[in-house]
Each structure stands twice: as C-alpha cells, then as structure tokens.
Amino acid sequence: MVQRSVALRRNVRILLIGDRGVGKTSLILSLVSEEYAEDVPCKAEEITIPADVTPEQVPTNIVDYSAAEQTEDQLTDEIQKAHVICVVYSVVDEDTLDRAVTYWLPLIRRCLTDHRCPVVLVGNKIDLVDYSTIEAVYSIMKEFTEIESCIECSAKTLQNVSETFYYAQKAVLHPTTPLYNYDTHELTEECKIALQRIFKICDLDNDGLLNDMELNTFQQWCFNIPLQPQVLEDVKAVLSKNIQDGICSGCVTLKGFMYLQCLFIQRGRNETTWAVLRKFGYDNELQMSKEYIYPLLKVPVGCTTELSHKGQEFLTLLFLQHDRDRDGALSPSEMESLFSRCLMPPWGDEYKYTVPTNEKGWITLQGYMCQWALLTLTNVRKALEYMAYLGYNMYNNECQTNAILVTREKKLDLAKKQSSRNVYSCHVIGPKSSGKTTLCRTFIDPKLEKLTNEMVPPSSHVTVNTVHVYGQEKTIILRDINILNVQDALTPAQIQCDVAALVYDASNPKSFEYIARIYIKYFADSKIPVLIIANKSDLSEVKQDYLLQPISFCNKYKLMPPQPYSISRTVRREIFVKLATMAAFPHINQFGLLQGDSMVWWKAGLGIAVATVAGFVVMRVLNTEKR
C-alpha cells in the first residue's frame, strides 16, 4: 500500500459579509457569469462550484449575506458554518473599511468562541480609484491575526475577481497563519518543529546535511517528480546568495532548508510548504494527523502482532545510522538523537531492566530490537505511531502497517501443531524467594552471578531476549508475575501466555506446593505448555511438604520432569531454549514427554515437522539433563 499524504478538506464553504452596497453580490455574479451584472438582486443564491473547475480540485460553496433579507441569528449561523469568510469593503468609502474593523471582524470573533475561521479582507471597486488601500490594511492584519490575506478587486472590470475566491480557497486549504508570523517575518515555532523533524527524516546518513541524493529523495517523495540538476544548482545559488551557513560542503543545512520554506511562504507559495507538511502527516494545526499515525490495522481475536521483515530492516537501519561510534550500542546522546524526531521516546529508562545492554547500561542492537518486539506485541497502536514519527512511510514509500505482521490465530497453531510466530510470551510464576526474578534477570544478563537491589525493577517487570529454535531466532518475553499473597487468585492477564514457567525453590520444603496448586487450578485443563523449574539446584535438594514429590507430580500430569536451574551454573541458556521450543510447538505439552519414553518422543517428533530429524532434535533440546 502506497502511503498517502494527509487529505485536504473535502469541500470549502466561503461566506461573503460586509456593509450594504460594497458589492458582495456583484462579486459572486461576476465570478459565475464572467461579466458585470447591472441588475443585481439583494442577495445571490448559494452557488456550488464543481471540483473540476477549481484550481485545488475541491468543490466550493459560495454564500452571500444580505441584511435586508436575513436576521442576525441567520448571520451568526452562516458565520459558524463557514470555512472562510470574505469581509468586503469599498475602496471608495473609508467608512466601510472602518466598519470592517469595528463591527464585522469583532462580530466574527464573538460568533466563533470555540474555533478559528480564516478571513480574507476584500477591497472592491478598485476601478473607481487610482490609489490602493493595502497599506492601511496591513496594520489591521497585525491586530486581527485571523486575516490570512487581503486583495483589491473590481466586480465591474472583473479585475482580481477569480483571484479573490482563489485566495479564499487557499486560506482554508493552505493557511498562512500556522506557518508564518507576520510580525517577525519568520516561521512559527510549530512550523519550525515540524520542518526540523522532516529534515531529520530526510537526512538518511544522519550527518546533519541534505546531499543531492537526499534532496532528490525528498523531492520525489513530496512531489513525485525528480529534482532536475539545474534546479538543484539554482536552489543552492539562492541559499549561498541570501544567507550564511545555508550551504555546507555542497549540501543544504537545516538553516538553508528552513529558509527555502520561508521563502515559498513569503512569495505566496504556501501550497508548496503545505504539500511537504501534509506528506509527512501534518494537519492544518501542524499536529500529526490521527489518520496518519494510527492507520487501520485489523488484528482478529487470537492473533498477535510482531515486526515484519520490512519493519525490522527499517529499525535496524535507524540504529546503525545513530550509532555514531560504531560500538554496537546507543549511548544516551545517540538514543536522544534517534528519538528527536518523536514527541518523546517510546520508552524510558526501564529498558535497562528489560533487554540486553552493554557493560555501561547502553542498549545494544539486540536489546533495541527486543524492546521494539515487546512494544509491537503489547501495544501495536503505539508501535504504529512511532513508526510514523520516525519516518517509515518515507523510507519505504508505504503505510507503516506494512512494518507490522499480524500472525495467524493461535487455534490454527494448535491444529497444525506448530507456530510460525517469532515472538512469544512466557509467564514466570512462583512463590516469594523461589528465585524467579533472578531467573528472569539472567535471561538478559548471562554473566550475572548475584542479584543486587539495583538490578531489581521497582515493579512487576518483563525481560526480553532472543534464543534460537532449530536455527530460527525467536524472541521470548518473560513476565515475572508478582503475587503478594499465595491465597490471591490469578487474573486472566496473569494466566494467558504462550508458555508458563512454574518456579519453585528445590532447597525449600514448602516451595513446591504453591506451584502445584497453581498448576492444578489454572493450567491442568488449559492448552498452555508448562515447564516446571527446580531453582537453586546447586543447593541440597530437600523433600517437599506436598502429597506428591515434584517428579511424581510431573508424571501424573504428563509434564516434563522438573528442570534443574541455578544462577551458579555455567550453562543456563538451555532452559530458555526449552521454553521457546514449547511455545513454538505447543502440542508437545499434550504428549507428556516423559524422560526415556522413546515412543512418546517419536510422536512428538512427527508432530513437529520433519519426522525423523525433528523428533530427535526436540527430544535432545527438551530433555537435556543437567550435566
């Protein structure tokens, strides 16, 4: 799907107001008939101009007002319905201009308390004088910032009649006020912020400059035509002549880019700047359009969301662009630079507890991609929003929904006895002091030897990392389920996952009972694969105060034997590979993979895929003994 820019308004409604006799009705009739009407009614009927005869290809309604035929309530209603208002005065009657300032413009403000409507000040009957009132109007424009433009015309000679209504259209479709400050003759702060973001997105090599290739990409993206070499040289010549630091090493600087947009506006070419802004998702208030940052993405019940190959490529490219020192990690300043095109970063400092980092606590590429996998799975709406902020739409010339992959329903995975997904959630459940937090932490810090207070997140947390299952990289999200009281019931959100790890302390006789009861109550009748982990296996194993010992319990419920685990073991990653394998092949749980039961393993292997090979590999992975 090709990404479209933010859509223009579907229609424009122009209202003409002003004192009697200034020529409001004559202007409308002259526009329609292209000749001056000597016989003019008190009020023209509402006129609709089809889209195909307007410069902006937008249907336009033109509405007249007559004090002789309409009440003040009707006038108020028309003002509130208008998209733009032309306040008409006569250049031969100074009182009509004074009335525009003292009556008509204040009236518009009183009627529109909840929104702003652009105004065009129109001086009619210019054919009757040999002077201009434009200088006097400039001071009025400073007082009434809603005035977008002013123009003088003649309904009798048709001078500037069509231009008057074109200006009115432009005031709605390409307003000046959000972009330009007439007092300072500079871009507004909101416009500067938007253009800075656009500059950063177009700066593909992140060197702070736009080279010829980047400028051509920008031109092609915004206007769908290449930038001719001579035009490019002319642009650079204009910048070199008019401002300092507009060009550096033959490339356009941010200052130069801003100057060009300001120049377009000063020359009445607002539509050029607006075309750029809308292509990058901005609406008339210079806010990111909801339709642009939140495109429709259907996620059926039972399906999940993860990054597509294109999404992964885009995010990896961003990381490499901003890893200026090429150390494989983003320093705080590099991270700030990457997310400077967003309103705020998509995550805070919690990533230090969540994903792999280097020894300085800086996020690595692996950790960065894991963080994105977590966001995409748990909050795909936010992932779409940030893909838009970061510029996916321009990089790939398509909607950011293409950065997201919607997986098939889980019930189909169960039916086919394997999953094609790449991201799985694992809930780690166990009693207090069972060591589940330590287990989760070692997933992202394999060298961890002892858990200290500063390593423990302030609240219930997740850890995310990748493992390989049969040569394919899978991302596993471990969620440490904090339960304050063993009597507390688990919520559906605490239960529903792709695989559950029930952890007990093998050296504590009262530890196993808790997870045994949890299994019987919540998982015995579910299709969620469960792995029981005997933590602290480096300590002396004790008999559990429960009617069944762990091995007997697992035999009874056709679970794999308790998997020994300890922070002091050299090889610890195998436990996470087992969890990932069980999530990827959920049917394994129903076979009761008992140690040494070759027939059961044969069945499991057949269910996975390639019978003779896969069956052997699953057996080897899932029944790895503690060496």
From TrEMBL:
Gene3D superfamilies: EF-hand, P-loop containing nucleotide triphosphate hydrolases. It comes from the Eukaryota. Residues 310-345 form the EF-hand domain. GO terms for biological process: ameboidal-type cell migration; cellular process involved in reproduction in multicellular organism; developmental process involved in reproduction; hemocyte migration; melanization defense response; mitochondrion organization; small GTPase-mediated signal transduction. Keywords: Calcium, GTP-binding, Hydrolase, Membrane, Metal-binding, Mitochondrion, Mitochondrion outer membrane, Nucleotide-binding, Repeat, Transmembrane, Transmembrane helix. It is found in: Mitochondrion outer membrane. It is an enzyme of class 3 (hydrolase). GO terms for cellular component: mitochondrial outer membrane. Mitochondrial GTPase involved in mitochondrial trafficking. Probably involved in control of anterograde transport of mitochondria and their subcellular distribution. NCBIfam families: small_GTP (TIGR00231). This is Mitochondrial Rho GTPase. It comes from Bombus vosnesenskii. The lineage of its organism: Eukaryota, Metazoa, Ecdysozoa, Arthropoda, Hexapoda.
